[in-house]
Amino acid sequence: MATAARTTGQRPEMSATEWAARQQLAACYRIFDHLGWSELIYNHITLRVPEEENAFLINPFGLLYGEVTASNLVKIDMDGHVLDGSPYPVNRAGFTQHSVFHRHLPDAHCIIHTHTTAGMAVSATREGLTPTNFYAAAFIGRIAYHDFEGVTIRAEEGERLIAHLGERRIMMLRNHGTLVMAQSLPEAFLIQWMLQRACEIQVATGAAGTPVDIPPEVIAVHQRDLSGVQLPLGPGVPDFEAMVRKIDRIDSSWRD
């Protein structure tokens, strides 16, 4: 995509496709920071390296999202070995959770895990996400749930995560946060944005009064018709490109 693939500062020791993926992922970290979705140096957005079967990119542990750049992202394999000589460590919890999905789900090219206030609040309720607003209606029947088992650093939890996810690609980690995965980073970004909005509105609705559920037949129509209001560029592409333009006007250092 043109807005995240400028070659300024390209490192000769990597392919053009990897550099473009690095720039796209670095842009996403800066967008999350701009939107207030960062969590100090924690949480992760990971992206498979194009044309490499067992490698993905992850944020350097210890850096804020606002400090992530294309060149300081860490390239690791499915066993957590650093492949690009990076001096930065990788968060064990992030590797344990993300590697199991990248390893076992061929369509999980981008994975997003956040601890936003609204996402964590909804994940901590017995009802989970409820069919009470425009954005939530898009997710009804599409969300998996996984009970909290403590910080995710034990490999055996991966089997339960995969089992609980099933054929779905969005998960509420109960008492913990949200997990989104998709075939591209722009698509994952748009899903995350919509899920965040759904959670924010649900929390606000609960404070305002008694929520009104949307009938199942209306949800079915809503989900059927959503694709009719998207630009024909691919899921999330125009949305992500718009945010890249915004952060570029603020600070374009993520490109280097």
TrEMBL record:
Domain of life of the source: Bacteria
Domain Class II aldolase/adducin N-terminal: start-end pairs: 23-203
InterPro entries from the UniProt entry: Aldolase-II_Adducin_sf, Aldolase_II/adducin_N, Aldolase_II/adducin_N_sf
Pfam family for this entry, one: Aldolase_II
Coiled coil: none
NCBIfam families attached to this UniProt entry: PRK07044.1
PANTHER family: ADDUCIN, PROTEIN HU-LI TAI SHAO
Family named by the database record: Belongs to the aldolase class II family.
Protein name: Class II aldolase
Provenance organism: Sphingobium fuliginis (strain ATCC 27551)
